[in-house]
Amino acid sequence: MIRLFHISDLHFGLEDPAALTWFTDCVQRECPAAVLITGDLTMRARSHEFAAACDWIGALDVPVTVEVGNHDLPYFNPLARFFWPYERIRGIERLVERELDLAGVAVVPLKTTARAQWRLDWSKGWVTKAALDKTLAAIDALPVGTAALVTAHHPLVEAGTKGRALTRGGEAALAALAARGVAAVLTGHVHDAFDLVKETAGGPIRMIGAGTLSKRIRSTPPSFNELILDGQRIAVRVRNLAHVPTADMQIDAVPPDALPPREPGEPVAPVGAVPPVDPPVH
Q1: Separation of alpha carbons 105 and 225, rounded Å
Q2: Residue 79: is its pLDDT beyond 50?
Q3: Architecture, CATH, for domain 2-249
């Protein structure tokens, strides 16, 4: 059996110090095989927020893989957003979109963030063909019998709702992952935990979302997911300081807007530019 901790939406700048300290203590005491972080390390991608996030992540002292979230792209500097969007995350560059091999379990990243899109709200997810092809190639290269977990920031579909294609390319990506027998897709972004099975053209696939360790809570207290893997079987426990049972922590559908509430005065991503081709982080 393998135990993993899945966290998301740390939002340094509006982080919850008590929740972060508690999580660090859990890692030091229990030594999970790895920590999977599915994006939004910062609130507004400022240098001091990234510095604090990188210091905290670097001190976990276990294998870590990190996805980039929409809040991790520069808000206030268009040049930085388009030409060097990941400059401030270099302190943990080796951990970003990092594949992990864990004795029969592989963690494979799928990029869902974009510097620009052909729509007004650039905070929403987008699975490009290049990003999906990279993930599928990594899955296809795994040894037979390996359980694959895919990590991304945005939920790929709004399960349980009619959906509004908030993650562009998400439905097709989920079907392709299901066809390859992916054990689960792990995401964040909505600040509430969930554990859902989605029927796709490629078959059923499990979608597991982590809550937040920040003060930007939606409907549940700060939390993280503990995953216990036994072959292809995954048991999920949503751990939180409030000691709310897992079943009560997990929402029964990804919200139709698929977004946490915006803080008063919180800026939206810039709009109006022509989307460039988004290269890999490295």
Answers
A1: 17
A2: yes
A3: 4-Layer Sandwich (3.60)
